[in-house]
Amino acid sequence: MRIIHADIVYSKDRENLAVHRGSFIAVENGKVKCIWTEIPEEYRDVPVTDHGSDVLIPAFSDLHVHAPQYPNRGFGMDMLLADWLEKFTFPMEARYADPEFAKLVYDAFVDNLLACGTMHACVYGTVHTEATSYLIERMDKKGIKGFVGKIGMDRNAREDLLEEPGKALRETEAFLEKYSGNKNTRPILTPRFAPSCTGELINGLGRLGKKYNTGMQTHLVESRWEAEQARLLFPECACDTEIYERAGLMDNGPVIGGHFIFPSEDDIRILKKYDCYAAHCPDATVSVIAGIMPAGALLDRGIRIGLGTDISAGHHTGVYTQAGRSVQLSKLKHFYEPDGNRAITFPEAFWMATKQSGQLFGGTGSLEPGSVFDAIVIRDMSDAAVKLTPEQTVERFCYAGTKEDIRERYMSSI
Ligand SMILES: [Zn+2]
After folding, report:
1. Band of residue 168 on the pLDDT scale cut at 50, 70, 90
2. pTM to 2 decimals?
3. How far is ligand 1, taken at its centre, from the CA of residue 312, in Å?
4. How far is the centre of ligand 1, averaged over its atoms, from the C-alpha of 207 (Å)?
């Protein structure tokens, strides 16, 4: 057992933060045992790590991030999705045919995730099996709980990123067989999005999902262009989400749909039916996608939402920043389209980035007793003239913090 002293903040529920000032948290076998204001007599001999007035919070979960696009972060942001894919994303992804290049990038990517306090992540690789294998091995070794997908893509991209569907399915199956038993980071099926996949590939992935009981991540109603292309290419489906439902990809494990910005009633119905997650990526949506998820309305309808950096459509690698951005965007959405939309609160945003999404990774994302203890300590961000409450420090960190404000990282997996 270990005991840590700090101001402690986590999500009690969707609307409320739990705040324990100057308290002691006991951790046993990687899980939170108890939070006390004073250490009980029988535990007086257990060593205590004291963080003073710094704030202990749960580690963050990034539900949508492209590791191979890490070198592209922060440029090409004046383009829209289709052009940006063509000019920046696909040429960069083609470079992962070179495993040495992949290692160099993926080492830096994984180190940066941890530096930013992200200990759980749903990560896209590329079509390249060797490079994506290195990524999942690296994340697993570093103790990151999460999922990595070898991208499935067999049409509508440059030639050197397309795989013949038979080969794509064989290599995906080998990837699932090799890594499904991983301790921390497991494989997930990853059709890039409907416009880049044939029915043969998507249906084949559906069969693999059933056989290996594996979930899926993809881009879902990401932009009007993407949703229209999906409907043109799969005219038998009423909406983007139905393409995956028909292929049997929705009920084999966790499903994470990236963006979900322009969902139809059918999209919402199907996502809710299978208890899937929508990944809200605020920076990405104002940069290359140009749409805002109706987050408040979707939360009120019971859709599970987590946050994502979407590197490199988003530019900031710390998903904690997306908590602040999601509040900002919900206010804009409500301002410009008041009917049916509302602004979300900071506690709701923090909940999406921690407790709500932490459920995907085995009961982490909170500090209440029983939670898997993945946590970070952020420095007390008070000014000399004005002392902040612990919850104000957390909010300031999510708007104006940097990874240098993280003083300590605790991972249950290592
Ligand atoms: Zn993406």
Report:
1. very high
2. 0.97
3. 8
4. 24
